[in-house]
Write a structure and sequence with these properties.
Blueprint lengths: L4 H8 L7 H8 L3 H13 L4 E4 L3 E4 L8 H7 L2 H6 E10 L2 H7 L8 E9 L17 E10 L9 H17 L4 E3 L3 E4 L2 E12 L5 E10 L4 H5 L11 H4 L7 H22 L2 H9 L7 E5 L4 E9 L5 E4 L5 E4 L3 E4 L3
Helix pairs in contact: 1-3, 2-3, 4-10, 7-10, 7-11
Length: about 325
């Protein structure tokens, strides 16, 4: 027999020392079997100390997710819409997983949350990686009858949903950086990745992926992004006490269900004013890298369709639908 690494992790999640002999008896394996499972935990980014005479201990306590607890935290109206809810220990990408799965029935939501993503992605193929249990990696799939007229602004609307959930759960005023980043105190808190696939009869299968830094080790935060001030997590923002991840995940799922249900009819309009209030780039000098060239100017907000407006050095306004935008210093 062998011990499943996830089962061992749950046993160690309290952050207290656990004797190797006790663990071997509990899981009915040898001490070598426990040692092998510990190595798997380390490959997930967990620091496990092994002290002779004391036992195994995680470097930090883990707030692990559970599908039953997450479903129980949902409002009943939302829970009835969630046709599939999975909490996975390890996967390459929650977005990729849902895109490769059959789309949920109309007016229903499929949700996948992963404790560890080996190939989490952001825009332009950038990797988003956090140790197991340190971030929130959540994707939700929905099927529209046809591509919504404001499909190009759906990422921005998802950003508003995430901002509302964070305000509700942790009382933080998060800024939104066009088109898909979450910013706090000038540092990156997380990001959004929207992907879609055309279906039969013109239907549109959409997957919204959300990644939020919850309680990352300092060394992970230091290398997580290329922003001038780096990254931040919720634990740092809240003085060392991150929110329960199950509660944050539940509020996100509820917001996404409401957004998707109404978006075909109302589009981006109900979210536009709030997005503008949270606009991180507004008035800043920015650099735009797109498929055509690199240019710079002053960010002047978004238009009614969610396109970024950049005022060029000559005073003209350029409407940007896609590209990589960064803040210029000086």
């Amino acid at each position: 027999m062998r011990v499943a690494p996830d089962a061992l992790l749950r046993a160690l999640a309290d952050g207290e020392p656990h004797s190797g002999a006790d663990l071997a008896r509990e899981f009915e394996v040898t001490r070598a079997g426990i040692s092998k499972a510990v190595r798997k935990l380390e490959s997930w980014g967990q620091k496990v100390s092994a002290v002779p005479g004391v036992g195994y201990r995680l470097a930090r306590r883990l707030d692990l997710l559970d599908a039953r607890a997450l479903r129980g935290a949902l409002a009943p109206t939302t829970a009835r819409r969630v046709v599939r809810l999975e909490v996975l220990w390890e996967i390459d990408s929650t977005n990729r997983y849902l895109l490769a799965s059959p789309p949920p029935p109309r007016h229903e939501l499929a949700v996948c949350v992963a404790e560890y993503q080996s190939a989490g992605r952001g825009r332009r193929g950038r990797r988003w990686h956090a140790p197991l249990g340190a971030g929130l990696c959540l994707s939700a799939a929905w099927q529209f009858a046809a591509a919504p007229r404001d499909l190009g602004a759906l990422t921005l609307a998802v950003g508003v949903v995430v901002r509302r959930a964070l305000a509700d759960v942790v009382d933080l005023d998060v800024a939104l950086k066009w088109p898909n980043d979450l910013a706090l105190d000038g540092r990156k808190l997380g990001g959004i990745l929207l992907e879609l696939a055309a279906e039969a009869q013109g239907r549109c299968h959409v997957v919204a992926g959300i990644g939020i830094n919850v309680a990352l080790p300092a060394e992970s935060l230091a290398t997580l992004c290329d922003w001038p001030r780096g990254a931040i997590d919720l634990a740092t923002a809240k003085g060392g006490t991150p929110p329960p991840r199950v509660l944050l995940a539940a509020r996100l799922v509820e917001g996404l269900a409401e957004l998707f249900e109404s978006y075909e009819e109302s589009g981006f309009a109900p979210y536009r004013a709030e997005w503008r209030e949270a606009d991180y780039l507004l008035g800043r000098r920015v650099k735009l890298d797109d498929s055509a060239a690199t240019s710079s100017g002053i960010a002047r907000g978004i238009d009614a369709d969610g396109a970024l407006l950049i005022e060029t050095p000559g005073g003209a306004r350029r409407r940007v639908l896609s590209g990589d935008v960064s803040v210029r210093s000086g």
